[in-house]
Structure formats: structure tokens, C-alpha cells
Sequence to fold (355 residues):
Amino acid sequence: MAIDDAILREVLRQVIDPELGRNIIDLGMVRDLTFDPQEERVRFTLALTTAACPLRHRLVEEARAALLRLPGIRDVEVTLGVMSEEERRAVLGSGVSQPPKLAGLNRIRQVIAVVSGKGGVGKSSLTALLAVALRRQGQKVGVLDADITGPSIPKLFGLPAGGLRGNDLGILPAITRTGIRVVSANLMLPEEDAAVAWRGPLITGLIQQFWGQVLWGQLDTLLVDLPPGTSDPLLTVVRQMPLRGAVLVTSPQQLAALVVRKAVNLLKNLSVPVLGVVENLAYYPCPQTGEPHEIFGPSHAAEVAAAAGCEVIVRLPIRPDLTLLGDAGRIEEVDLPELAPLLAQVLAPAPQPAA
Ligand SMILES: Nc1ncnc2c1ncn2[C@@H]1O[C@H](COP(=O)(O)OP(=O)(O)OP(=O)(O)O)[C@@H](O)[C@H]1O
Fold:
């Protein structure tokens, strides 16, 4: 059997990217495919969606093994490459993972992730408050609560457990009083405090489901509240969604700054732009004099921002009314003028990717 380009491509179609659910030929990942009959050697470049793709070794090994099974091939040389931003968006951002029936109905203009290194710094509150502020500006807003291990978004909005419905097109998000669309694992549980032990792959699977099977409709902004600590959920978001960038939330505690720096490195490795650093619980304004007291210690936000190559965009004070309204499911009543610079950043048109 003479080995030609068509045969090589057919064989490489057996190699499936498990996250995207499509083969590497159809995904346009195979470039410069050549066969040298003298040396019986195949060479090609595998263009990854992101340089840090954790599946790269697996994809290379599967491609190599598939080709070596063909009689007449003795060697396979794979060079790793990275797709251009435009190609990456075409592959990941076009809703590849969305079933065709949803692809035409869901139009999501931008996705922004809210990330912290450490839990408890107020990431979910910030996500909810940003959603509320965007909604007040007339935006159509969705919140994908990917913090599956501690999903507090529904509680902040007063949405009851078991509040998700579906139809034959997909899962319908819960709608808050002001019209924000919310999807969260907590909305799928029979009771708000039901204990769930989520293993890593299940978390990734659920995020994929929230992206691929939810009937979001038309959204200006989808905010993704990411769980602290692990890289897999962020990686899933980066690979599946048209992510514009991330907002980094930290607090003055040294440990929070230390851990958030790990998140900075991860975002850098995945080429996710950081839109800004938000320091929450930054100070407590004295009710009598307004003088700021740094209750949790001096700020480390500038160091975090320098590492991320961006600005400290917002410093949020400790506001006891925020806890009270959040606990009562009335976060939509909070007005935080301090969020204005972050709001402006999110509302600004996304910069065009470099050609
Ligand atoms: N600026 C603030 N002033 C007062 N209380 C706040 C502030 N920010 C957050 N809180 C309160 O701190 C608690 C933790 O906040 P939140 O759940 O948003 O944190 P988180 O980082 O998302 O935590 P986790 O990662 O554990 O979900 C909540 O009770 C919230 O109301």
C-alpha cells in the first residue's frame, strides 16, 4: 500500500482530543504533514490550543502509535506548535462543545473568569456584585458558578436549591430578581446544604456541561466563578470558552497574596490576560471619621498586580452590610461605587488579538 497524505490523515483521525471531543485532523491541529519514503518517516507539527496543554504528551503518543501501526512507517517525528489566537478562538470559542441545536441559540459576547488562589477572600461575592453592576448598566449577564466545592452564588441571590429546569434543548438557568441568569451545582441539589464530594474529573465534566448544555441565550457577559486552588477547572474554561480574561481577587492576608501568585503563574502559562486585581477586605472605614483601618494587615495587592502585569483596579473595604445582604439572598440591593473601574474595564470593547 502506497502511503500518501490521505492515508496519513485518515489514520490521524483516530486521535481524539478528549476535552474537545473531536479528532486532531478536524480540529486543524496537524500541520506540515510529510512522508519520506526512503527513511520511512512521517513528520508533522501538532498545533496545540495552548502551549501548556496537559494533553500534549498523550496526543503525541497516540498519534505516533497510530502511525507506527501502518506497514511502511518506521519513524514519526512530531514538533509541538501553538495555534494563533484567531485559530484558537475558531476552535474553542465557536462553541465546539455545544451541541448544534444550542450553537445557534447561545450567543455569548464575552466570558470573564473570576479567580483567586485561596478560598474565602470574597471571590463569589465579587462575582455576584460585578454581575449586579453589569446588569444595572443594562447588560444581559450570566453567572456560571464553577466553584462546585463551595457554590455560594445561588445563596447570594436568594435562589432556592433544586431551581434548575430543563427542556429538550438543554438546561435552563435560574433567573434572579433583576434578570441575571445563574447556573450552579447547588441549584441541582435537593437541599442547599446537601453534602457533595466532587472529584476532579467530575468538576471538569460539570463545567463542560454548564457550558455545553445550558441554554444561556444571548449574553453580553458570562462571569465564571472558579474554585480556588486547582488548575483543572481553569484549564477547562480556557479550552472550552471564548475567555476574554480573568479578574484576580485577593485579600490583604499574606497567605492570600502568596497563593494568588500561583494563580498568576497559571494564568500566564495559559496566556489568559489579567484584566485587573481586586483587593477585597482591604480596610475598614471608621464609621465616625472615615479613616481607613487595615484590619487584616498591610496590602500586598501591588505585588500581586506587578506579578500579573496589571493594575490594582479596585480596593474594596470591609462592609458589614454586604455580609448581611448576601446572607439574606439580597446581594442585588448592594451598590458599590468602588467597583466603577472594574466595571469600565469589563464594559470596554475587548482588544483585537494581535494578527
Ligand atoms: N468586602 C466585604 N465586606 C464584608 N464581608 C465580605 C466582604 N467580601 C466578602 N464578605 C463575606 O465574606 C464571606 C466569604 O465570601 P465569599 O463566599 O464571597 O468568598 P469566596 O472567596 O468565594 O469563598 P469560597 O472560595 O470559600 O467560596 C461571605 O460571608 C461574604 O459575605
